[in-house]
Amino acid sequence: MPAPTALLHKPEALAEDEAMTEAPQEEEQAPLIDMNALPDETPPVAQYPLDTTMTIDETGRPQFPPAADRPAALHKEQRKVPIPPHRMTPLKLSWAKIYPPLVEHLKLQVRMNKKSRAVELRTSKFTTDSGALQKGEDFVKAFSLGFDVDDAIALLRLDDLYIETFEIKDVKTLNGEHLSRAIGRIAGKDGKTKFAIENASRTRVVLADQKIHILGGFKNIHVAREAIVSLILGAPPGKVYGNLRTVASRMKERF
């Protein structure tokens, strides 16, 4: 029985592949990189002298000499601290007290940009402290939150000071008059309750509408926050005063 005619013919694609393999290659492709065009000599690589002197101490540990002093590359950094609209006027009035600590103490370049409503900080060749830019930003940010200049300067001189911010709604959801009464309990008559919390916990408290900012040490912030949370939840001020007296006496005993 003769084979089907379809099997006797090769596919067109296969026939073209065989023709391509059998055909001699007339022209070779040009190389992508001409090796003759490359330079013979490679540029010299900067090498530092290696110090091979090494001594071993009594315990068998190697002792290396101190590293050679090499000038560190100056890397300029810049920060921009936005200022709220209601703090621009106090910033202009207190600018004579704000920029001297940043320029003289931290060796930073500072300018007040009225158009963008921000204070711009930048390192210079005279800046020696690696954390000077962060300290300057924290100082300006503390002033923008509502703290006094003298209190914000403490952030530049002490390393263990922090700022904690929380809202009343984070503690309890209050609306309308209930929210107003909670803010009034925190402030007290003529601000006496707030001053009592600050003096007992050795912190500074700023009431900005529904936001509360606390400046101080870690443990001191915890004491002030607990007192404020108790007032928000509805505790009577007399009970809060009693707890603050107990905490203040314990803090005096520690010191």
TrEMBL record:
Ranges of Acidic residues composition bias in the record: 14-29
Gene Ontology MF term list: RNA binding
Any one of the GO CC terms: nucleolus
Spans annotated as Disordered: 1-30
The organism's place on the tree of life at top rank: Eukaryota
Main location: nucleus
Location of this chain's protein in the cell: Nucleus, Nucleolus
Gene3D superfamilies: K Homology domain, type 1
Keywords for this protein: Nucleus, RNA-binding
Name of the protein in question: Pre-rRNA-processing protein PNO1
Record's subunit section: Component of the small ribosomal subunit, ribosomal RNA processing complex (SSU RRP complex).
InterPro entries per record: KH-I_PNO1_first, KH_dom, KH_dom_type_1_sf, KH_PNO1_2nd
Matching SMART domains: KH (SM00322)
Limits of the K Homology domain: 160-233
Role noted for this protein: Required for small ribosomal subunit (SSU) synthesis. Has a role in the processing of early nucleolar and late cytoplasmic pre-RNA species.
Family: Belongs to the PNO1 family.
